[in-house]
Structures are given as C-alpha cells and as structure tokens.
Write a structure and sequence with these properties.
Blueprint lengths: L12 H12 L2 H13 L3 H29 L3 H8 L4 H14 L3 H15 L9 H9 L3 H20 L4 H25 L5 H8 L8 H14 L6 H7 L7 H30 L9 H11 L5 H35 L3 H21 L14 H28 L2 H8 L10 H26 L3 H17 L4
Helix pairs in contact: 1-13, 1-15, 2-11, 2-13, 3-4, 3-11, 3-12, 3-13, 3-17, 3-19, 4-5, 5-15, 5-17, 5-20, 6-8, 6-15, 7-14, 8-15, 8-16, 9-13, 9-15, 10-13, 11-17, 11-19, 13-14, 14-15, 15-16, 16-17, 17-19, 17-20
The protein binds tryptophan (TRP).
C-alpha cells in the first residue's frame, strides 16, 4: 500500500527546518553528548565526533533526504518500492525507533520531574548527585513521570505534530539556547572551571579505544537522527525546489552547535564543583541544578525554564520516533492513526517501564550483561544505527541508479551542488568502509559482546524474513 496518496508537504522551508532540527536536537545533545564525552576522555572524543558529523553525517543526511523525497513515502516503502530485498533496512529502522523509545521516555520523564523539582526543593539540596541517585532509584516516582511523558507523546502524535508542540518549541528552543549560553558563561567564571574548557579542547588521545570511536559514531548518528529512516521520512515531505545539501548542512550545524554548547555549559561548572566527568547518565541532572542553586533568588526559576526547555526539546525528538512506527502501521498496514498510535505507545511504555525500573528495583536483572536501560541504549546506538547507516549508504550508492540520485540531489540539475562527486564517493565508498570498520572493531572490543551478537542476529533474521512484510 505504499502509494503517494494525500501526503502533506511542509508549508514552508522554515517549517521543515524546525521539524527536522526538532527531531535532531534533543536529549542526545544535552543529556547524552556531555556524559559520553566525560566517559570517553573529553576532547579526543569531541574531535572524533566532529569528524563523523562533518564527513559522514552531513552526507548521510543529504542521502536520506534524497531517498525520501525521490520515493515520496516513508522509510519502509522507500526501500520496498525499489527493491523488495531491501525492505528490511526500513524494518530495522522501525525496530530501532521502537527500542530507542524503550529508554528515551525514561530520561524525558526525569527532565519533566526536574521541572517541578526545580521549584520544590532541588535548589536547596546540598548534594545534587545524591539527590539524582535517590530519585532514579526510587522506582515508583520516576516511573510515574515516564508515564506522564509518554502520555504527552501520545496526545501530540494523535493530533498530528503541527499544533501546540510547534508553537511551544518556537519559543522554548531559543530559551534553551540562551540558558545554555548563560550556564556556560556563568560556569566559566567559577574558580577551577578552566580545567573544564581544557578537557573539551586539549586533545588527549590516550583515552581513545575502539569502543569510544564506536560511541562517537553512534552518538553522531543518534544526535542527527540518522541511520534509521527518520530523516528519510522527513525528506519525503520536502518540496522539489528545496536544496537538500543546504538543508542537511543547516540542520546538522544547528544540532552540532547545541551539543557543543551543552558541553561548554557542563564541563567548566563540573570541574569547578569537583564532580567526576565519568559520573555517567546523571551528569546534566547533577551539574545544571548545582549551577542554578548558586544563584540565589532567580535560580529556581532559571532551573525551571531550563528543564521545561529540555523537556520540549526531548518531546520534539520522541514524537518523531513514535511517528516513525505509527506511520509505518498507517502507510503499510492501513491501521487508523489513533489505534496505531495507542498500540505502538503501549508497547513502548512496556519497554520504558523495564528501563525505568532497571535504575531501581530491577537493577539486578540483566539481559545479556547489561541493565534493560543500557541494553536498549547500546543495541540501538552501537549496532542498529551504525549498521542502518551503512545499509542506507550501500543502497544509495550501489542499488539506486547514480543518475537518479544525483538528479534528486541537484533538483534535476537546476541546483548545482559543487561537491556532488565528493559527496557521492563518500556515500558509495567511505561510509560503508569507515563505518563498517568502526562497527566491526567496536563490536569486537566491546564488553557487552553477547548483546552485540544478539543485535546482529536480529538484523540477519530481519534481512531474511522481511521481504514478506
Ligand atoms: N536525535 C534525537 C536526540 O538527539 C533523538 C532521535 C530522534 C533519534 N529521532 C531519532 C535518534 C531517530 C536516532 C534516530 O535526542
């Protein structure tokens, strides 16, 4: 049923940029990027990350836009309509969205909780690290916030993405950026904060392992929403006269800017307060409240705004993930929107419940050597997105006809793209080779080997069976 019926188009270029950037900018930039950089030695990780963004990420985003606009349908259909044997790449994308939504709403719930905690005592806590630890391990409370966060997602996706959320993000995205700049500048005035700036910019490659290279790659794809067909789907709504490389560059630039800004907001303050860079997933929830609690009077309000903005940034990303799976059921299986959204959200909520409780009462349960939360994170970020990115590049470089792809990227030759040959070579050769090597070496060297093997097995099974989907 993959036909081009009744599909909307973005009203304006601005609307498209907002939606694509809204999908990209999220918890990945502000929650995930700083703690990964902290765990992987800082500057070297940041440099490798930037390399992947600039060399591979922008090219892959351009490619996803091109494949989507050319096909005019969402991810699964785009592959299936050209060659049924490639259907599974779209299906992997649907599965990836599904599993990311097995942990993302947990962190979205933390952010929502911190909005309210900002004005009810968080500012007067003597130890923000212990406060965070007690909160996430308390089981029931974070679970409830996750459920509320999930309900917000359902509301938005059932009603269509364009209403309130767009208006809220137009206001709160700039607020987020201003507050990040404020925290960064304020942090740099604190004693001992310069070590944090150094940590981010003075390259030290001694901490780099294959695992951290794979982390940087996974983070680049995760942050840019690449490797699973989300940007491809957005491309399918894009008008024929829009520049694909131009839009990809703009969305990527914005995404990277926000990630780096988050790094500069977190690390100077972190070093000034003597928090460990390797404190892990709670980093932003420990450091930012501590900065604001230093500011008597308006600190609580600023903290409230910060976590409101973070929650909205998270929502604009998670609705895009829920939408990927929902639109698959609508487009390919003819299920109505309301039913599809609810069914998908309930299943995601079950996964997120496991991930949320794995920080508390289920902390001893492991699947293949990791907690539920970590397992969902690792399997998507370190396998599915990387393998998905390689497969999308191979599909574009080796299956789609070169003339067709280039014609799409140059708008039928009307919009010349100076780097078109470089871009095509990156897609056809460099991404499959470099990402492939990084994935293989990372998988060989990672601790959670069993999990990686399970992930690869799932991909293999999908490759064999999804022709029938
Ligand atoms: N990019 C988002 C973030 O940084 C998360 C996200 C939304 C995503 N859609 C995606 C990640 C698709 C991978 C694929 O928070």
């Amino acid at each position: 049923m993959s036909q081009k019926t009744n599909r909307g188009q973005w009203g304006s270029r601005f609307g498209f940029i907002m939606a694509a950037a809204g999908s990209a900018v999220g918890l990945g930039n502000i929650w995930r990027f700083p703690y990964l950089a902290g765990e992987n030695g800082g500057s070297a990780f940041v440099l490798i990350y930037l390399f992947f963004v600039i060399v591979m990420g922008i090219s892959l985003m351009t490619t996803e836009f091109a494949l989507g606009r050319r096909a005019g349908v969402s991810a699964v259909g785009s592959f299936k309509n050209l060659d049924r044997r490639w259907t599974f790449v779209g299906v992997i994308g649907v599965l990836t969205a599904f599993i990311i939504m097995g942990f993302y709403p947990v962190v979205g719930g933390w952010s929502l909780a911190y909005m309210f905690k900002s004005i009810t005592g968080l500012m007067s806590t003597p130890d923000t690290a212990a406060f965070f630890g007690n909160f996430v391990s308390s089981s029931m409370e974070p679970l409830l916030w996750m459920l509320i966060y999930m309900i917000l997602n359902i509301f938005i996706v059932v009603r269509g993405v364009s209403g309130g959320i767009e208006a809220a993000s137009k206001v709160l995205m700039p607020v987020l950026i201003v507050l990040l700049i404020f925290v960064a500048v304020y942090g740099m005035t604190l004693d001992g904060s310069f070590a944090g700036v150094e940590f981010l910019i003075k390259p030290d490659f001694s901490a780099v392992t294959w695992d951290s290279v794979l982390s940087a790659l996974g983070q680049a794809f995760f942050s840019m929403s690449l490797g699973m067909g989300a940007m491809l789907t957005y491309g399918s709504y894009l008008k024929k006269d829009q520049s694909l490389p131009g839009n990809a560059g703009l969305v990527s630039g914005l995404d990277t800017f926000v990630a780096l800004l988050a790094g500069f907001a977190i690390f100077p303050a972190l070093f000034a307060f003597g928090v460990e860079p390797t404190s892990g997933a709670g980093l932003v929830f420990m450091v930012v409240p501590q900065v604001f609690s230093n500011i008597s009077g308006i600190g609580a309000i600023l903290s409230f705004f910060f976590f409101s903005a973070l929650t909205v940034a998270a929502l604009t990303s998670s609705v895009s993930l829920l939408e990927v799976v929902t639109s698959y059921l609508i487009d390919e299986h003819g299920i109505n929107r309301k039913k599809a959204t609810l069914a998908v959200a309930v299943a995601m909520t079950i996964l997120s419940t496991l991930a949320s409780l794995s920080q508390g009462v289920l902390s001893d349960v492991s699947i293949l050597g990791a907690s539920f939360f970590d397992a969902f994170d690792i399997v998507t970020d370190k396998i599915f997105l990387a393998v998905g990115g390689v497969l999308i590049a191979i599909f574009a470089g080796w299956v789609v006809k070169k003339e067709d792809l280039i014609s799409e990227v140059t708008n039928e030759g009307t919009k010349p793209f100076a780097l078109v040959n470089v871009w095509y070579a990156i897609v056809k050769y460099a991404i499959p080779l470099v990402v492939g090597v990084v994935a293989v070496m990372g998988i060989i060297n990672i601790q959670q080997r069993a999990l990686m093997i399970a992930g690869l097995a799932i991909i293999a099974i999908l490759a064999v069976f999804s022709k029938k989907l």
